[in-house]
Amino acid sequence: MDLKGKAALITGATSGIGLAVAESLAKAGVRLVISGRRAELLAGHAKRLPDCVAIPGEISDAAFANDLFARAVAQTGGLDIVVNNAGRVATGPIDEIDIDTVCAMVRVNVEAAFRVAHLAVKHFRGRGSGHLINTGSVLGTKVRAQIGAYAGTKHAVEALSEALRLELAGSGIRITTVEPGLVRTDLHRDIAKKEGVLPDVAEPLTPADVARCVLFALDQPPHVNLPRIMLLPRDQAI
Ligand SMILES: NC(=O)c1ccc[n+]([C@@H]2O[C@H](COP(=O)([O-])OP(=O)(O)OC[C@H]3O[C@@H](n4cnc5c(N)ncnc54)[C@H](OP(=O)(O)O)[C@@H]3O)[C@@H](O)[C@H]2O)c1
Fold this sequence. Notes:
Radius of gyration: 17 Å
Mean pLDDT: 95
Number of strands: 7
Largest sheet: 7 strands, parallel
Number of helices: 6
Bound molecules: NADP nicotinamide-adenine-dinucleotide phosphate
Order of helices and strands: EHEHEHEHEHEHE
Low-confidence stretches: none
Shape: globular
Strand order of the largest sheet: 3-2-1-4-5-6-7
Strand content: 5-15%
Number of domains: 1
CATH superfamily: NAD(P)-binding Rossmann-like Domain
Distance between the termini: 34 Å
CATH topology: Rossmann fold
CATH class: Alpha Beta
């Protein structure tokens, strides 16, 4: 499969997995629209990567998400790939956790992810092709103590992805959910010190490990779909 000249929108591309996917796709000659809230950081990535446009904003703001999608389509002339990746985490015992932070997480991980999937599928249907990559998690099929709310959001992404796979059979549209275990990224910056929340893994995944899997899914012949790719650090017993 030649990805050269294809067009992709990547949400959550200011850091971590989204940025690594952007870098890999850029190397493969994909034209990019990247998004995230940290505007300066995003603009720097867009300057560095070839054929890349930055559109910063708050993805859980419905007006921004709709506008982002419309501008990405206008900018590229049509999207072939959407990487639905923006996400955040909230952890802690449910009776102690800051419930407003949990609700903000749900708005990004579920509401915005569903909206982006909705927009992507609608757009792909008009073109008769396209590939939606959802960033799920190993916690989309399993749970750990103190991270149940996050796991719930990722279970929701799994449910939507599986239903979409069934709905989209015969449409020319593919959907893949990537399910990483522990990846060393900014996601955990606020919880790294909370005892017992993060799994004890000597060597976590890197964002590049996840990006390699995304490329692998995108690189399949048109008749092949990889609905799920779970990748774990070798020593993560979950
Ligand atoms: N790290 C892991 O262990 C792990 C494991 C499994 C799955 N995941 C999933 O991987 C995805 C990427 O996370 P990451 O680990 O790469 O962490 P990260 O470096 O913190 O990336 C999260 C991305 O989402 C964006 N984002 C967060 N809230 C947003 C909002 N309200 N509006 C717009 N953009 C927002 C962030 O950009 P701004 O901060 O600039 O807005 C950032 O680009 C998430 O869906 C996460 O749940 C991560």
